[in-house]
Amino acid sequence: MWNPATDPLIASPYTADTLAAKADNKRALQQRLGLAPAADLPLFAVVSRLTAQKGLDWLLEIAPQLLALPAQLAILGGGDAELERGFLALAQSHAGQMSTTIGFDEALAHLIEAGADAFLMPSRFEPCGMNQMYSQRYGTPPIVRATGGLADTVVDCTAATLVDASASGFVFAEASAQALLAAVERAARTWRDGATWHALQRNGMARDFGWETSARRYAAIYARLAQHR
């Protein structure tokens, strides 16, 4: 269901070898959401329940600074009424630069994963999380807090992790709006370095989060335990 090479819900399929086609999805997403067709601005996105658990009150707090980078922002989700009102009001006052869609739309969720440049998932806690894995598969580096399943599945972009090709997103530790903003600013700077950003995208797309890999790791654990019985 989440494979950009075969996804029927996106504008243009692509792989790690045909990443240029991702731009078609960005244009399609901008058009659908009424955003300016700006190829020279990073487009950050959220698909989530709008709750404090997801750290989206932090995003609401720093959204004006994010937009002033400059950048675009797309929100899809629903939940806390105050957060809904806040994101809707921001979108209204930043027409063409920000979009807020309340509710859930499966096709739009797929197009967001394919069309966004980076995916925001700054959760206070996250036992597992799926969208950060979808995002890596779609070449849309996630920006996450170092908690739970997010810390398990996203490798922070640093000089060292770029060299060993493990970097797949942006990770911040402190539970605060300012730490989120710093991670967003770091992502925006990296996005402007095309070669580094493409390496980050390819790293994420090469990762395997499938159950075959997990099952082999569980089997290895059980085999080691059996040896010590």
Question: Which terms would index this structure?
Answer:
14% strand; 229 residues; alpha/beta; 6-stranded parallel β-sheet; 10 helices; 48% helix
Provide a brief overview of the structure.
Helices cover 48% and strands 14% of the residues.
Give structural notes.
There is one protein chain. The protein has a six-stranded parallel β-sheet with strand order 3-2-1-4-5-6, sandwiched between helices. The protein is globular and about 65 Å long. Helices cover 48% and strands 14% of the residues. By secondary structure, the protein is an alpha/beta fold. Helix 1 (22-33) crosses helix 4, helix 2 runs parallel beside helix 3 (81-93) and helix 2 (56-67) crosses helix 8 (177-191). The relative contact order is 0.14. It has helices spanning 22-33, 56-67, 81-93, 106-115, 131-137, 148-153, 159-163, 177-191, 194-206, 211-227; strands at 43-50, 72-79, 98-102, 118-121, 142-145, 170-172. The longest helix has 17 residues, at 211-227. It has ten helices and six strands, in the order αβαβαβαβαβααβααα.
Topology record:
Elements (H helix, E strand, L loop, with lengths): L21 H12 L9 E8 L5 H12 L4 E8 L1 H13 L4 E5 L3 H10 L2 E4 L9 H7 L4 E4 L2 H6 L5 H5 L6 E3 L4 H15 L2 H13 L4 H17 L2
Parallel strand pairs: 1-2, 1-4, 2-3, 4-5, 5-6
Helix pairs in contact: 1-4, 2-3, 2-8
Could you give the order of strands across the largest sheet?
A: 3-2-1-4-5-6
Q: How many β strands by DSSP? A: 6
Q: How would a textbook summarize the main sheet?
A: 6 strands, parallel
> How many angstroms separate the termini?
41 Å
General shape? globular
Strand content: 5-15%
Number of H- or I-type helical stretches = 10
Mean pLDDT: 97
